[in-house]
Structure formats: C-alpha cells, structure tokens
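// run 5 | inverse folding | seed 20
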C-alpha cells in the first residue's frame, strides 16, 4: 500500500505548533529511533502505525529531508496572515511599552511559549496607509496566542532573531554610552536610580555585568542552537542507517 505523505519542503509550510510539539517530545527522550518516528509524525501528520510499516530506506530519506528543512533560517516579515486575519509587527519598537517588553523577554526564553511571544510582537492590523499601518493595543498575550500556534515557523524564527539582534544592538549602544559619553552628573543619577554603590565600584560592576550579557548574546538564540544540534544528530543517525543498508 502506497502512503500519501505531505512532506514540508520549507519551514514556511510548518506551523509553530508542530515545531513546539516535537521540541517538547525531544526534551523528554534521548532515544534517537523514537525521536525519528516522532519527527515524522509531528511534521507530516502520519499515524504511528503507518510510520511503523514504512520501508527503512524511505523513513531515513524522509528524516534527512525533514532535518535539512528544519535547519533553514527564518525570514523577518512585518506582515502576514493567519486565515483571513492580517497581523503586523510592532511598527515602532522605540515606543514598545514596559509590559510588552517584559512579556516578550519572558516568552522568548522557551519554545513552549513562542506563540505567546508572537502575540506580543504581532497584532491585528487596525489601519493601513500605503506601506504604513497601525496595530491593536496590547492587552496581554492571551488574546491571540492560540491563533499564533498556526504561524509559519519561517516567520517565527525570523521575528525571534530580529528582536534578538535589536536587543543586542541596544545593549552595545548602552555600553558605549556608559564607557565613553556619560557625564559625572548622569552617572550620579544612574547610581541613585539603580541603587548602586556610590564609590564607583557599583557602576563598574554594573558595566561589567552588561559586558558579560553582551558576550553571551553574541551567540545565536539558545533554543536554535540546541535544536540544530538535535536535528544534526538525527540526520547522521538516518544516514548511518542508509549506509548500513547499502553495505548489507
């Protein structure tokens, strides 16, 4: 019996929910054979009983194809649609509210809450004028987070890296200001506002902490690196199975 399999050839075809499901499974198991089976189920929708009946060579080729697809980088996109509802990225990040920023920082820490992060970064477009637009006010992530589970993985990864890059640039600019341009008056004010030691040691410790944070942020987002490593392991496992069959 031939199986009709819908195999994604781009991360633009993969909904965030499928990616979240697979990452959740992978965090609870180190069994690579089990994870290959789960990968096929999560990203093609095949039932496990159908996967079990697949030829080994077909399964390994499918795993290799899926892992290569998942390794692709995201693309930042300011606007996109889910069903008939068009969403727009926060038009001016300089005007982001404290609540939006705090929620975004929190939800971008883990793949399981990426749909909530997307609901902060993207909201329904309210008005459009040529290439400009306005979006609905932020009233918490719950309003659109479930819908964001259908967001294409390509856009999710792109938005994540875009925000990470902006945050890194902001931190670098802050360090430059602290080290080269800050006057004694501003420094005194900052010491009071941040409740630092007034003898200079507190400010030095604060600057040192920012440098460490910047150094850590120079690497790509942690979730991406960890999952890329897993995809490579599964790809190698599948290739090894293929080689064993060829040499049998």
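// decoded
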């Amino acid at each position: 019996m031939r199986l009709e399999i819908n195999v994604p050839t781009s991360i633009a075809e993969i909904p965030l929910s499928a990616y979240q499901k697979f990452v959740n499974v992978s965090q609870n198991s180190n069994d690579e054979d089990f994870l290959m089976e789960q990968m096929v189920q999560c990203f093609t929708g095949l039932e496990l009983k159908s996967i079990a009946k697949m030829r080994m060579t077909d399964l390994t080729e499918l795993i290799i194809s899926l892992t290569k697809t998942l390794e692709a980088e995201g693309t930042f996109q300011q606007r996109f649609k889910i069903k008939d509802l068009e969403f727009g990225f926060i038009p001016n990040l300089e005007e982001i509210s404290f609540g939006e920023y705090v929620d975004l920082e929190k939800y971008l820490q883990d793949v399981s809450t990426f749909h909530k992060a997307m609901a902060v970064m993207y909201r329904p477009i309210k008005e459009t004028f040529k290439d400009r637009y306005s979006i609905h006010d932020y009233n918490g992530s719950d309003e659109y987070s479930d819908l964001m589970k259908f967001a294409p993985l390509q856009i999710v990864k792109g938005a994540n890296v875009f925000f990470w890059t902006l945050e890194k640039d902001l931190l670098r600019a802050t360090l430059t200001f602290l080290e080269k341009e800050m006057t004694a008056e501003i420094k005194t004010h900052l010491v009071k506002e941040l409740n630092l030691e007034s003898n200079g040691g507190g400010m030095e410790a604060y600057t040192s902490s920012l440098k460490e944070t910047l150094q850590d942020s120079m690497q790509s987002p942690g979730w991406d690196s960890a999952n890329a490593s897993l995809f490579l392991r599964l790809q190698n496992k599948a290739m090894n199975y293929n080689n064993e069959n060829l040499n049998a």
